[in-house]
Amino acid sequence: MKREKGLLIVLSGPSGVGKGTVCGALRKEDTDIRYSVSATTRAPREGEAEGVNYFYKSKAEFERMIQDGELLEYAQYVENYYGTPRSYVEDMLAAGHDVILEIEVQGALQVKETFPEGVFIFLMPPSLNELRSRIEERGTETADLIDNRMTVAKEEIDLMDKYDYVVENDEVESAVERIKAIVTAENCKKDRLIHLYKSLVEE
Amino acid sequence: MKREKGLLIVLSGPSGVGKGTVCGALRKEDTDIRYSVSATTRAPREGEAEGVNYFYKSKAEFERMIQDGELLEYAQYVENYYGTPRSYVEDMLAAGHDVILEIEVQGALQVKETFPEGVFIFLMPPSLNELRSRIEERGTETADLIDNRMTVAKEEIDLMDKYDYVVENDEVESAVERIKAIVTAENCKKDRLIHLYKSLVEE
């Protein structure tokens, strides 16, 4: 039995927790999930590619997209814009596909206003010390920026209450398994299925 | 991170849908789930064993257990009693283990009154014709009893609204995978975890 509309799944969490790594590992699995690609004004990191990790935009292009309502959500984060192009997400959901957005916490809360029925997953570091180590290992940030990120991370963890699920990113494989389980379970939610089953009784 | 109290998972659905088969297959999997064994006054079916499928009781013994408050729920169903011994379930939950009850629909709704925080899964046949075939194949029922079961099944499907999840028992393996996913997802629910994580921020 196929429901008419797909699930919107929002994977978020503090910067540095490993959202990109977890989402990348999930994409390698054999699932029917579709992945939204965000737009950003930040520079590509080594190994990242246009249209795969992000659509890389100039500040002027990004602001034009905001003006024209082409973004489902956007946020400015450590001097760069990040946003989700609206049309891909809406088309996939309408076609009955589950779609995952991997986005920053500010953006996730914006999406929640438009899609309260979405499934909001907070990816959590095993500890704040571990989060700091991961940001430091990335080696792309100055000490001041790292301190700033840690302050923001604590504020973001306080926003966990707005989410439906918390997944600890202790090991990437375990986090991926838990996210897949959440998607499977959400597709078994009675509220999403009951109208399909009521007709069975009238056979 | 381990939460203090386990999840109570209630697997129910119309008689004949295959609750016993699905639960049996789930027990063979490597999980941390504990299985409650019900008491019943019905005669053992071929291949069933005392303390594994059920605790088999006389009517008098069962009624003594009801009197003494030793049952979490009980129901009379097609002339037999079925019930869940209370102490095992409460002990396992208190020790932090997830416990599955495989019970009839009437009993599930009783458990919901005592454990509204439980996870209620409705096992659904692919169709009513398929349900009738499964009951007929079992070969333990007269034609009148089968008609009676089908009427009850339709009433039970109308009670699906009281459940949290609906799992279609199209293939036993798929049903088992979905139930495992539901247990994993429920253990990631923010409401069950948030108090454990708030302390992280105060490190």
Automatic annotation (TrEMBL), chains A, B:
InterPro entries: GK/Ca_channel_bsu, Guanylate_kin-like_dom, Guanylate_kinase, Guanylate_kinase_CS, P-loop_NTPase. Its EC number is 2.7.4.8. The keyword Kinase applies. It holds the Pfam family Guanylate_kin. GO terms for cellular component: cytosol. It catalyses: GMP + ATP = GDP + ADP. The keyword Calcium does not apply. It is found in: Cytoplasm. PROSITE patterns: GUANYLATE_KINASE_1 (PS00856), GUANYLATE_KINASE_2 (PS50052). Coiled coil: none annotated. Belongs to the guanylate kinase family. Essential for recycling GMP and indirectly, cGMP. PANTHER family: GUANYLATE KINASE (PTHR23117:SF13), GUANYLATE KINASE-RELATED (PTHR23117). This is Guanylate kinase. It comes from Salisediminibacterium halotolerans.
